[in-house]
Amino acid sequence: xxxxxxxxxxxxxxxxxxxxxxxxxxxxxxxxxxxxxxxxxxxxxxxxxxxxxxxxxxxxxxxxxxxxxxxxxxxxxxxxxxxxxxxxxxxxxxxxxxxxxxxxxxxxxxxxxxxxxxxxxxxxxxxxxxxxxxxxxxxxxxxxxxxxxxxxxxxxxxxxxxxxxxxxxxxxxxxxxxxxxxxxxxxxxxxxxxxxxxxxxxxxxxxxxxxxxxxxxxxxxxxxxxxxxxxxxxxxxxxxxxxxxxxxxxxxxxxxxxxxxxxxxxxxxxxxxxxxxx
Length: 278
Known about the structure:
Belongs to the TatC family. The protein is mainly alpha-helical. The protein has helices spanning about 1-35, 40-45, 55-70, 70-75, 80-85, 100-115, 115-130, 135, 140-170, 185-200, 205-215, 220-225, 225-235, 245-265.
């Protein structure tokens, strides 16, 4: 009897090892491909250091409206100096001999991982497929497609919208006698970690869809635990030292939880109607 319980467990471990090996090989191949444009990715991540982002153009438009409508306020707070401030040339710095090489490796690994996301999600599907019904197994293409798109949207949302906000907020502390001097490893590690966090945050609705379809969670369960989700979002965000980063992690994380609640309501497994006995 004990052997009968152990054998399925060993089979699951063997299957898990197989999926992990395929995933690692895929990531290595993706890393090799992304190595060729890792320098371009580094340049893109460095762009907010110039201070010239979409926030700069937005500030110019807002200040322009203030100048036209409220010239007294515009002149009193000397907004002209803020708008016409010259763009500073800032560069990342490194102190270890092989530091740029290892950073290029890290960028290539993350970029390669994103590049082969369809393969990774397909391996996840194959691992859980034995527990699915024949009808549910046909959803492999939608699952892989939506999961990949969701992760990429989360990563791009961070890089295009959130990352410039974080860097601009940090640069706003520059003053006479206080100059930014960003370290290459600290800067890139911080960015890559948040890319993965935002990609996973945007996967929450997909996870909610799967769990609700399997009947593991339900709309009522998720809805009545909103306060705990808000608390959990705050705790996860609290692992980041500065307030602005905590905020930009907590808000999307909780919003994705709200989306997950409605996904469970719309696509969740419906309970069979209870018929009254005659």
